[in-house]
Design a protein that fits this description.
Helices cover 30% and strands 29% of the residues. It is of the alpha/beta class and 204 residues long. The protein has one domain: 5'-nuclease (Rossmann fold), CATH 3.40.50. The protein has a six-stranded parallel sheet with strand order 3-2-1-6-7-8, with helices on both faces.
């Protein structure tokens, strides 16, 4: 069996799903999603999720932590970067405030992708992102490990945005709907993660 590894740009995928205006789709089982992308003679060897915790937003932070616990229980490897405070100023009125900027996530994706190619961790890789900053990493994999197949899957509605990455497919809403996590995730008879109320599916 060939080995498939999937690399997911967490915020890129999150914002694409957020644009669908259906919050319950955010409770997405990334391992199940990866399995839908595998060829018949492939097995999912690894799923890597890259993101960062927005610690200054308590409710969002709590939901994100619950989601990470759910993903880890499914076998997903989670890579967390961080947000840095960034001062902002309105040039029109002079007002100032503190904003937050995500740092290092795209670097983490690039390093992991290239390292895995060089250490023979996969036969085929799929990157789920529309971030053009990742194009150099894809080119490097093709240069240093030409026998490794690698393709890009654009998040929902982001196929055009991902054109610099030359995507081969788009993750559709229909595919996401089929890969949602259950309300409760259990392991060894204990509940390890519970779906946040914000992500409750609408009633039929």
């Amino acid at each position: 069996m060939k080995r498939l590894a999937v690399y997911i740009d967490g915020f890129n995928l999150y914002h694409a799903i957020d644009d669908l205006r259906q919050p319950h789709l955010k409770w997405l089982d990334l391992w199940a999603l990866a399995e839908t992308l595998a060829h018949p003679r492939e097995t999912v060897a690894a799923v890597h999720y890259f993101s960062a915790f927005p610690t200054w937003r308590k409710k969002t932070f709590a939901r994100h932590r619950e989601y990470v616990k759910a993903l880890e229980s499914r076998g997903v490897t989670v890579h967390l970067a961080s947000f840095k405070k960034k001062p902002r100023q309105c040039f029109a009125c002079g007002a100032t405030w503190t904003d937050h900027e995500e740092k290092e996530t795209d670097v983490h994706v690039a390093v992991q992708l290239v390292a895995d190619a060089l250490t023979n961790a996969f036969d085929r890789a799929i990157l789920i992102s529309a971030d053009s900053d990742l194009a150099p990493a894809i080119r490097k994999v093709r240069e240093v490990a030409p026998r490794k197949a690698i393709l890009v899957a654009a998040p929902p509605g982001r196929f055009t945005h991902a054109r610099d990455l030359e995507p081969k497919l788009e993750i559709t809403r229909g595919r996401v709907v089929k890969c949602l996590l259950p309300e409760r995730i259990e392991a060894d008879g204990k509940t390890v993660a519970t779906r946040p109320a914000n992500y409750t599916p609408p009633k039929d």
